[in-house]
């Protein structure tokens, strides 16, 4: 012990000052004046609503993607002590004092700042020079659009951060693979790759594109490993399992964990409940749960029920009837049965109640013990208030003449007998003896006489006219026309009927249920339903003033006005650095042309550059050009409203390509000292222009200082840019 004290303890630390300086400058550029403007900026009006709902633990569904990005924004609000009380209804609205603006914008700003050193490290790991890496980092640092997007409560900077982190982690893992298999650092970077990929996908589904790119690259690298005869079969299997664990299993597990946390936090009923199934709604505190708590689980003969259509969009609705009848003749001259109307009504109402009756008895109450209805049983559905039977027959529906009219039967003593028998088919049954269950069972009612299925068709057309009170049409649809969720119903409210007399039964239908049976959903059931809603839910896409097409992005023929000061004329725009965007396009074109040239020449056994330079060129292109392609080209296939900020992940990869191409040109095409000197001078002049453009557009990047009308007009370098000029 004393011998150890004779010699000093020495700790050697290597610090890359380039990396430190870039990180500090990146933080300054993104965090400076972060609370300005203290007003709602563009899509903060959208994401802020979700932050408020998180603070209040209220459930919501966002069809734009998974919940991880929203949770990170909500974390900023939590750290700042935000209580969620702010009305996010207008861009430009001043924030009240209870809104911690700096804290809410902090995480996106940090993510944007850290993209600068990440860009530097990616080029180092790609085996390019420190000078090229420094150039890539500075281009990210001085890109006006990336600065703007990272300084507000938006998700793109967080997405780009996780994308770059995933790329860097994989490159570090791959480079370590040459020397140290299965070492601690090897495992760390491999696992971090999977974690970063899952986080990218969890922020926005756009992250899936880069994840698939890295999986493809990993697959190619493993394919090359298979050809290495120095590796045993056992070693190859271990490599395969390690990659499967880190790049597939862990990302899937993390993705599920995002939803688990999301659903755990958001346990209260909210404004988005109606698009979820009754079972999901009943699992939330308040709302439907207050109504359905304590209902009987098993539907029995004599049960009083309300039937909700499972489709639930564009609005939820319940099977409904009222005393009014179909008109004898419709506006187009077609005749009807003049029977009692049956509709799908989008509001809770006493006329939504039906009684499940056994066709073999006249009893409308539940026996003791109750006789449960099972899959395949024949029932009659009696309207609770009017006591008329649900019926369909070979008469054309009012709005869907190729489908059958559904009505509540009125006996007019004419040759039109009642056809009111329905077979209960439980769609999500586990066996053919399953019992029809409240909320949990999704059922289809098949008409015994005609084999038509009870369907809410109003989702696909207009509502009924004035005579139908604008309610949604219900029809009998032939099974031969295919299956659709609008044919499926579930029991939402349920009680065991006790009153045989109609007057007593009407009082009973207005009273709440009393029995106590829980119907909690498992996490996987809730996850599956929520995931499906996110993927299939489509908001009405309306043309936005600042929407654009993917073709507009490459040449930046569009911009987005994010904020305008009401009096001074100060404003913030999503506008990129024109020199950087043009240079990125040129770099991509040069890379493509040079690669084709090299490939043709190599086919002819002519090798213009050394093999190691060729491999470096190909691997860099796989990351940068591949990253640009997978993050850009899919937008041509998307049917959604697009904005310029959707291009930023692809642009980031394209920017990384610029110093790669410049270094390649300087090393392999400028062979003489004179050419190298001239090329270096051109690069310095070009980079000076990048900085000059950055400074020129800084006022509309940071929102200050405010510019005069003349200065604003001078910034309109393209006629397609919408620079806001206030009238004096």
Salient structural properties:
45% helix; single chain; endoplasmic reticulum; dolichyl-phosphate-mannose-protein mannosyltransferase activity; six-stranded antiparallel sheet; 4 domains; alpha+beta; 728 residues
Textual characterization of the structure:
It is built from 21 helices and 14 strands. The chain has 728 residues and is of the alpha+beta class. Helix 10 packs antiparallel against helix 11 and helix 18 (611-632) runs antiparallel to helix 19. The longest helix has 33 residues, at 233-265. The strands form three sheets. Strands 9-8-5-4-1-12 form a six-stranded antiparallel sheet, with no helix packed on it. Strand 13 and strand 14 (571-574) form a beta hairpin. It folds into four domains: 35-99 and 266-291, no CATH class; 111-153 and 576-727, no CATH class; 156-264; 296-512, Trefoil (Acidic Fibroblast Growth Factor, subunit A) (Trefoil), CATH 2.80.10. It is elongated, with a radius of gyration of 33 Å. Its main location: endoplasmic reticulum. This is Protein O-mannosyl-transferase 1.
């Amino acid at each position: 012990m004393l011998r150890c004290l004779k010699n000093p303890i020495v700790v050697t630390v290597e610090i890359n000052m380039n990396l430190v300086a870039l990180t500090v400058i990146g933080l300054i550029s993104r965090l400076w004046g972060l609370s300005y403007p203290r007003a709602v900026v563009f899509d903060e009006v959208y994401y802020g609503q979700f932050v408020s709902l998180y603070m209040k633990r209220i459930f919501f569904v966002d069809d734009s993607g998974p919940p991880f990005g929203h949770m990170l924004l909500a974390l900023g609000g939590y750290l700042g002590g935000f209580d969620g009380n702010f009305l996010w209804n207008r861009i430009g609205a001043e924030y009240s004092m209870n809104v911690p603006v700096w804290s809410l914008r902090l995480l996106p700003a940090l993510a944007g700042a850290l993209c600068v050193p990440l860009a530097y490290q990616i080029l180092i790991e790609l085996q390019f020079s420190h000078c090229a890496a420094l150039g890539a980092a500075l281009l990210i640092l001085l890109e006006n659009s990336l600065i703007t997007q990272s300084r507000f409560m938006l998700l793109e900077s967080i997405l780009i951060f996780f994308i770059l982190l995933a790329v860097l982690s994989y490159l570090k893992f791959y480079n370590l693979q040459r020397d140290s298999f299965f070492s601690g650092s090897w495992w760390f970077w491999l696992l971090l790759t999977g974690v970063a990929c899952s986080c990218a996908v969890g922020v926005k589904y756009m992250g899936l594109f880069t994840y698939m790119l890295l999986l493809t690259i990993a697959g190619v690298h493993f394919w090359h490993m298979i050809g290495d005869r120095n590796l045993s079969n056992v070693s190859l299997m271990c490599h395969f399992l390690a990659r499967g664990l880190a790049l597939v299993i862990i990302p899937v597990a993390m993705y599920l964990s995002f939803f688990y946390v999301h659903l755990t936090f958001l346990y209260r009923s909210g404004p988005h409940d109606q698009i979820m199934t009754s079972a999901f709604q009943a699992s939330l505190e308040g709302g439907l749960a207050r109504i359905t708590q304590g209902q009987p689980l098993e539907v029995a003969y004599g049960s009083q029920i309300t039937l909700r259509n499972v489709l639930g969009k564009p609005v939820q609705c319940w099977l409904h009837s009222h005393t009014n009848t179909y008109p004898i003749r419709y506006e187009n001259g077609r005749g009807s049965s003049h029977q009692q109307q049956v509709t799908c009504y989008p509001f809770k109402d006493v006329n939504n109640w039906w009684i499940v009756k056994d066709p073999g008895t006249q009893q409308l109450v539940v026996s003791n013990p109750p006789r449960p209805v099972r899959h395949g049983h024949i029932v009659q559905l009696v309207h609770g208030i009017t006591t008329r039977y649900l019926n369909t027959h070979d008469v054309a529906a009012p709005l869907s003449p190729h489908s059958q009219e559904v009505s509540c039967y009125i006996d007019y003593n004419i040759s039109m007998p009642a056809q009111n028998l329905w077979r209960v088919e439980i769609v999500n049954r586990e066996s053919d003896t399953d019992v029809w269950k409240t909320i949990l069972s999704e059922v289809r009612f098949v008409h015994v006489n005609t084999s038509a299925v009870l369907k809410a068709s109003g989702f696909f057309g207009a509502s009924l006219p004035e005579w139908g009170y604008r309610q949604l049409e219900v029809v009998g649809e032939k099974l031969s026309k295919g299956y659709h969720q609008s044919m499926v119903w579930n029991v939402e409210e349920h009680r065991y009927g006790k009153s045989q007399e109609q007057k007593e039964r009407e009082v009973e239908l207005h009273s709440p249920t009393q029995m106590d049976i829980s119907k909690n959903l498992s996490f996987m059931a809730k996850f599956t339903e929520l995931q499906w809603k996110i993927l299939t839910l489509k908001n009405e896409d309306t043309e936005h003033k600042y929407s654009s097409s993917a073709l507009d992005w490459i040449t930046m023929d569009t911009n987005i006005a994010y904020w305008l000061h009401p009096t001074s004329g100060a404003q913030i725009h999503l506008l990129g650095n024109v020199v950087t965007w043009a240079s990125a396009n040129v770099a991509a074109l040069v890379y493509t042309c040079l690669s084709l040239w090299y490939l043709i020449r190599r086919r002819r056994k002519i090798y213009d550059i050394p093999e190691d330079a060729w491999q470096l060129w190909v691997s860099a292109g796989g990351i940068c050009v591949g990253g640009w392609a997978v993050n850009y080209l899919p937008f041509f296939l998307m049917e959604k409203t697009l904005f310029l900020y959707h291009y930023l992940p692809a642009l980031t990869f394209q920017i990384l390509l610029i110093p790669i191409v410049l270094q390649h040109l300087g090393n392999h095409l400028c062979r003489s000292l004179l050419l190298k000197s001239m090329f270096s001078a051109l690069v310095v002049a070009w980079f000076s222009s990048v900085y000059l453009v950055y400074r020129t557009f800084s006022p509309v990047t940071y929102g200050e200082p405010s510019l005069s009308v003349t200065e604003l007009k001078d910034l309109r370098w393209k006629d397609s840019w919408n620079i806001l000029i206030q009238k004096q």
